[in-house]
């Protein structure tokens, strides 16, 4: 009897693999300041390096988002873990900007594969009656993993030797454990077959367009907040608030993703009609607190703003995804959801690069204030729209 037959792990193990994989995508977050000092590049280049990750995710969503439906979940998860390991090696043997870009693009490829295959594996491994818990496990693994990456890297970089190497060595060890667990996972796709990489296209049927636009704009705005914290929050904390502890920077970024996890949990209790406008309102409040923290240079206010903004992002994102998925006809649901994620990941990249460009003119503090003001207006308009025209419940 093989080990896989002796022990058949369920959805919690798949969620753990998901979390380990996603943690690697945010591992460099508190380290960008160290790279900037070592290589001598600007804040704008930090945001461009970060945005390379989102380009990798988008490329995979467009080209290979369907692959795990054909070849099976386990091979795609193993491939994603391999890409995560290759990304870590790029950072371990980093020799300049090209290696950083390569590491971030590979990390984006891995995240793009994880987002579909791991989510599906977690849901499909749930036994009857466990569907609700499995859905939350997938959400918690995604956002929790993204939050744990900066926390792990910040603590190791601050209190352990080799700050630019040890976090990635530790993650390589976790990836090895995740690979073993993935090999033991039951395959949930019947009759796997060879897949061909081909652009799937983004289908947006007419009946979903009225719901899609406000939901996708809310997702864009919420992900732009996540992108801001993931790319440049450590620089804000260090250069604007005067806190140089990398563990503190990593913990602050972690709070945004923990807030998002909490917001997504609350969405199920509030329902889509209340969660979407409510999430926009809470996101606006979080952005106001973040901009206030920059104006008055207050770390506690920044932390409260991070939690509040994360909750708002989580509420709006899950509500929007639920509404879009419910409105899309079954034949076009996959393409519609892919389009939704594409808009969201544009939000995590394009505005952040804009912030980096603004730092050259306005400085970090001024760029952060300008960013917050623009997103507040955007989210406020979306919130008012969905308050007047709430989407239907699933």
UniProtKB/TrEMBL annotation:
This is Multidrug transporter. It is a multi-pass membrane protein. InterPro entries: MFS (IPR011701), MFS_dom (IPR020846), MFS_trans_sf (IPR036259), MFS_Transporters (IPR050171). Pfam families: MFS_1. It is found in: Cell membrane. The chain crosses the membrane at residues 12-32, 44-64, 76-95, 101-123, 135-156, 168-190, 211-234, 246-266, 278-296, 302-327, 339-362, 368-387. GO terms for molecular function: transmembrane transporter activity.
């Amino acid at each position: 009897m093989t080990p896989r037959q002796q022990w058949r792990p369920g959805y919690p193990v798949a969620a753990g693999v998901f979390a380990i994989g996603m943690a690697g995508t945010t591992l460099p977050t508190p380290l960008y300041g160290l790279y900037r000092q070592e290589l001598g590049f600007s804040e704008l280049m930090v945001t461009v390096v970060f945005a390379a990750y989102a380009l990798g995710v988008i490329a995979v969503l467009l080209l290979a988002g369907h692959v795990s439906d054909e070849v099976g979940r386990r091979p795609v998860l193993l491939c994603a873990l391999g890409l995560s390991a290759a990304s870590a090696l790029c950072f371990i043997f980093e020799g300049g900007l090209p290696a950083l870009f390569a590491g971030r693009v590979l990390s984006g490829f891995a995240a793009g594969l994880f987002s579909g295959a791991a989510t599906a594996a977690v849901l499909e491994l749930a036994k009857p009656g466990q569907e609700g818990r499995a859905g939350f496990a997938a959400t918690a693994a995604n956002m929790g993993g993204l939050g744990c990456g900066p926390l792990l890297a910040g603590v190791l970089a601050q209190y352990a030797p080799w700050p630019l190497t040890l976090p990635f060595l530790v993650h390589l060890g976790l990836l090895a454990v995740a690979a073993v667990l993935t090999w033991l996972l039951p395959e949930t796709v019947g009759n796997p077959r060879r897949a061909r990489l081909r652009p799937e296209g983004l289908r947006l049927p007419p009946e979903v367009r009225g719901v899609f636009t406000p939901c996708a704009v809310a997702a864009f705005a919420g992900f732009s907040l996540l992108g801001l914290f993931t790319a440049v929050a450590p620089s804000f904390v260090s250069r604007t608030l005067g806190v140089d502890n990398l563990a503190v920077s990593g913990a602050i970024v972690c709070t945004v993703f923990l807030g998002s996890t909490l917001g997504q949990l609350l969405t199920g209790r509030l329902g889509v009609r209340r969660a979407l406008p409510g999430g926009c309102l809470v996101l606006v409040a979080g952005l106001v607190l973040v901009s206030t923290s920059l104006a008055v240079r207050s770390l506690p206010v920044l932390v409260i703003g991070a939690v509040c903004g994360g909750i708002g992002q989580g509420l709006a994102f899950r509500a929007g995804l639920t509404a879009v998925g419910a409105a899309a006809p079954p034949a076009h649901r996959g393409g519609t959801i892919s389009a939704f994620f594409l808009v969201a990941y544009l939000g995590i990249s394009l505005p952040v690069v804009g912030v980096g460009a603004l730092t050259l003119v306005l400085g970090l503090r001024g760029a952060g204030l300008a960013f917050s003001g623009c997103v507040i207006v955007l989210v406020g308009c979306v919130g008012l729209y969905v308050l007047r025209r709430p989407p239907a419940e699933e």
